[in-house]
Amino acid sequence: MKYKICYLSFITGLLALSSCSKLLEEKSQSEVIPKTTVDFRELLMGSGYMPATEPINFLYYMDDDVDFFIEYGNGNGSPVGSSTAKINFLFYTWQPRLGDRNGLGDLISEDPASTAYYRHYDWIKGCNAVLDNINNAIGSQPEKDRVRAEALAIRAFYYFRLVNLYGEPYNSNPAGLSVPLKLTSGLVAENMPRATVAQVYETIVNDLKEASRLMDPLPIVRRDFHINQPAIHILLSRVYLHMEKWAECKAEADKVFEQGGMLNDLTKAPASSWLTYANPEVEWMFGGSPQANQSTYIPSAEFRAMFDTTDVRWKYGFLIQPQSFYPLLSKMLLSTIDPVQSVRTGEAVLNRAEANVQLEKLPEAMKDLNDLRRTRIVGYRDTSIINKTDLLQAVRNERRKEFCHEGFRWFDLRRYGMPAITHRYQNELTEPVVHYTLAAKDPMYVLPFPNSLLLRNPALKQNPSGSMPDRVGQ
């Protein structure tokens, strides 16, 4: 089933500029005005749901799973010194100018519409337009509830991303500034200031809880590219994990299995089905590939060493380059039509396992860990870890392998305490290899706002990372 941009997507601007009372008035027959719940669901798909694109794939370059492809550099087809290597240099080395220029010194764009920040708010605008007007639609109450629940859930998902890009981690400073909260489609006369991290998280939780309240009584629909009940509970368990609300995290993960969620034995499944709806673990597909350019940046040696040789996630996720025997990513299908990212049951298992460790329920956590590994590692035999510290690390390692290059690792590093990271880089073949370090609790763990946004919204106060000096390699 193809994921299509629906025919009503162009009217989001009309909805945002129209009052509720005027929205459903009769217009010229040449205008398309949503009236039914079906219309609004299509509008949400076209203007609220993320298309087959990914505006935050730059996170690929910033965590500790990535390395520079120096070993391939022999003067023949080497990435060293290439424009591709340099363009993404600022992200890879955590430079304060990363939101405004690329590694060649070119201005990325003076148009805020090109930023990840703007694009998420554009989808939020689509959600808000539906939320403001769905109650007036023609249709049954269950139909309205489903559309409203979907809009609330995906709006919460976008705010979760934004707060983890531009605000401090919740477990570090919930009172710190985050991003503005725009919860209606109407225009505002004044510039919007930043809400606190806690306020944004409160909105996220409230939206997801209301979405589950509305949708849980309805039939569960799978594999139609609309978010469903299990996916909503997985997202809510993820949010509680970041908030360190362990009991709530576990409770939401439990609901996934109460609603038919399951683990799929990937050791017996074809590789092509892992991150598709052919995998029964997958509850929701969305967006484009978070993988970035692979000809210059590869999985780091430290990360590669974590995989067991019989772990099918290695076989499915990486392709060995014949010329150099170095791996390139092959995890995501590169499609401009169908979504390739997924929310799947494996996350519920790992969220619950981590929560159980923190709740001192080590046997339950160990069971979840063994259950997951048994479906990922050929011939796996259950193990037992009785030390809390060791078991927590084992769960987090499994999470790192399970969701590598899917946009999880950077957000997880933030909630783990923002550890130091070192990346190596070579600008030209004739120059030495240098190392760039992101210090522990570095300000760059909270990204700077692009200047194009600050110029258009003076109330959007810059983060400390935006005034740092250039980071120098050693």
UniProtKB/TrEMBL annotation:
Descriptive protein name: SusD family protein
CDD domains, alphabetized: SusD
Cellular localisation: Cell outer membrane
Family that this chain belongs to: Belongs to the SusD family.
Ranges where the RagB/SusD domain occurs: 343-464
Keywords annotated in UniProt: Cell outer membrane, Membrane, Signal
Organism: Chitinophaga niabensis
Coiled-coil annotated residue ranges, if any: none
